[in-house]
Amino acid sequence: MRHFGHVAPEVRQRLFHHEPCTFTADSPARLLSAALGATLYSPATRPRLADDIVKQSAQGVVSMVLCLEDSIGDEDVPAGEENLVRQFADLAGRFAGEGDGAVELPLLFIRVRTPEQIPDLVGRLGPAARLLSGFVIPKFTGERGIPFLEALAVAEAACGRRLFAMPVLESPELLYRESRVETLEGIFRAVDKYRDRVLALRLGVTDFCSSYGLRRAPDMTAYDVQIVASVIADVVNMLGRADGTGFTVTGPVWEYFRVPERMFKPMLRHSPFLEGQAVELRERLIEHAMDGLLREITLDHANGLLGKTCIHPSHVPAVHALSVVSHEEYSDAADILRPERGGGGVLRSQYTNKMNEVKPHRAWAERTMLRAEVFGVAHEDVSFVDLLAAGIPG
What we know:
Elements: H1 9-15, E1 16-18, H2 29-35, E2 38-43, H3 49-58, E3 63-67, H4 77-94, E4 107-111, H5 117-125, E5 134-137, H6 142-159, E6 164-169, H7 172-175, H8 177-193, E7 201-203, H9 205-210, H10 226-239, E8 249-250, H11 278-287, H12 290-302, E9 308-310, H13 316-321, H14 327-336, E10 346-348, E11 355-357, H15 362-375, E12 377-378, H16 384-391
Parallel strand pairs: 2-3, 2-9, 3-4, 4-5, 5-6, 6-7, 7-8
Antiparallel strand pairs: 1-12, 10-11
Helix pairs in contact: 5-6, 6-8, 8-10, 14-15
InterPro entries: C-C_Bond_Lyase-like, Pyrv/PenolPyrv_kinase-like_dom, Pyrv_kinase-like_dom_sf
Protein name: ATP/GTP-binding protein
GO molecular function, one term: magnesium ion binding
């Protein structure tokens, strides 16, 4: 699979200076953690789940979570498990061998409620477990998370396939100031012990807000809710460091699809949308609350997050378009990482609009190059508007 793989080859050639790389579920964890992109959640009870997965893959989705937790009622869990087993068997029949069919399946994860579900589901999936990339662990803390990670190790040994964990950081202990540091330290100890199995850490901002009876409006991002922004900052501070101890941390979910009435002025500037059909695209984005999403994705990146939890397919193209590395970013990163720059120093960027300090900017450059590998590098004259328009299914 590859990002923008659903776009015609001639269009990709026009958009990209370097096209996104191809990858599989067996690619190195470091690459996969950066490549998750917009991770689309779906209730495990959907009756045509296999068809949904194939459809979303054909429209550019590369990672999905099939949820047995908050998205379904307590009474629906047994039916959800049975449905997953049926739907995976259906998919396994359609994709009997590597590379079968014109569509590659996305990375598939199951969000469970209890540790016991992990080995139980892997056993019930049987041979179809080869289509599974791992499990999403809810309300993760050091104490509650270890049994899930131990169960994952058991399931992995039983099926003979690498399985990843994606813990969700959403518990009240993480939110409350008096327990936050201790909780983060416990989380770090747990995920560090199982580092090889932890693909990414996900932020559960909806649960954070619920602890205080809050809900952000479509005119606001998670970073406008200060109590949430403070948690994100501390999670990145302690768990997202670029010194080799950190993990990929993904951005919070955007809850809105369409806005019937706005209180504040739209957040999308006119200037990038002044030509041709881009004006109409801007109006559609504003109508569907996507201007807030675009702003939040930009702030995710500025705050050290990569990828995003999504609950609607319309959000996926925005996440992927804004994850593409611009030609300017690529130029700066390549300059900083030249072997002859190993001694440090300061140089003027090729775009002559900034100074690049080799040692302080090196970690940024390395992260940028990893993002460039999985999302590609845009041509110099290609904007995120072009990428967004190309990524939206026809």
